[in-house]
Amino acid sequence: MQEEELRLYTFEVVEDEVLLGAEWRGGLIDLSAAHAMLLGSRGKVAAQPLSGYISDLLDLGPLGIQAAQDALLHVTQLPKRERENLWYPFDAVEIWPPIPDPGKILCCGINYVERLEEDPSAARPACPYFYAKLPNTIIGPGEPIIVPRLTQQLDYGVHLAAVIGGQMRQVAEADALAGVAGYTILHDVSARDVQNPDNQYTLGRNFDTFAPIGPCIVTADEMHDPTNLRLRTILNGTVMQDTSTSDSIFSLARLLADLSRVMTLDPGDIVTTGTPAGAGQFRRPPVFMGPGDLVTLEIEGIGTLENRVVAEL
Questions:
Q1: What is the pTM of this model?
Q2: In the Cβ-directed half-sphere of 308, how many Cα atoms lie within 13 Å?
Q3: Closest of 223, 218, 207, 225 to residue 312, by C-alpha
Q4: Cα(298)–Cα(163) distance, rounded to whole angstroms?
Q5: What is the CATH superfamily name and number for domain 105-311?
Q6: Range 7-95: architecture per CATH
Q7: Largest CB tally within 10 Å, which of 10, 21, 174, 308?
Q8: What is the distance between the alpha carbons of residues 61 and 286, in angstroms, rounded to a whole number?
């Protein structure tokens, strides 16, 4: 039987009940329940079904992804009446960030050729430059990005985000992509007037809500060429960023290899490839986000991540 495309979601139907989902026919399959049903059909009723958290799935390594694929395929072969309690339309669920509790979130800066060209003060880096975002920044699709009172320069930035699937330490560049479980979108929100005066990257990029991610994780086997994906940022209907990951200075494999020489990358960690040209602070005149704005990020092969901007109360 042919395998179904695996696009993983974290969602809830009942408040605070976290479910692991796979996209299918305009809705989501509850993979935890589907996997339990599959185990039962194999006479393994005492076996452990899949958790509702993608991070737990990633801890299982390739066996976890295969179990999710098997569960999805099992449901698609069932008669409609037997799968009706396992499938939810998108308008009946709340989508969470796919990994609501990531470990490390490491972003690459100044990693697009056109981004370098738009900033006269930037020099071409000799090696990748990284900064961290912290777990308090994570929100999901549709959740509000909050404008802190401390900033008047709230900037946007679309990033391709790789989700680590297996522990990586001292990995060669040629082998690095094998450690990626899948891909999602990360919105690197920043407060430029907090970040820039004293090069305060940690403070300027780590206010609460400054890292929307989602809507899903597309597994690595479904992402045929992450080095050539179109990325776009659309602010209130106007396209602000529009390029391809082929414009990158350093490849994702290089980023992963460099990071793995310094630290162990663990399942559920997120590494991003940087944002392209078109960020608000480099426009003339500059363009920043404010309360009421709607910002939409798109990455080819993954989907759309959309959030409204609201004022801090």
A1: 0.95
A2: 8
A3: 207
A4: 17
A5: Fumarylacetoacetase-like, C-terminal domain (3.90.850.10)
A6: Roll (2.30)
A7: 21
A8: 44
